[in-house]
Amino acid sequence: MAPRTDSVTELWNVARYYTQRRWDEDGDIPDDGELKSEFKEHERYSDLHSQSSQQVLEELAESFTSWYDARQLYSELSLLRSVLREAKQAVAKNE
Length: 95
Prior knowledge:
With 95 residues, the chain is mostly helical. The chain has helices at residues 5-26, 32-39, 43-47, 50-94.
């Protein structure tokens, strides 16, 4: 039997809200282990087979981690572009 789509969606949304709130409060992204521990007693977790619930939370943790990594990479690239632009301007002034 396939997992109930509404339970999957609700578990994702509740866990996403929790993760977003944690990020906003202290800049931390909970890993899948923390999410599983936090939500193992949640009604939506229990609505699904445990492997399905765990997979939802693992994918959510991966999504946030990937978003954070991409955000960090973008910041580093922006800084590098700024440094390169300043270096080009300095070279141009000295020519």
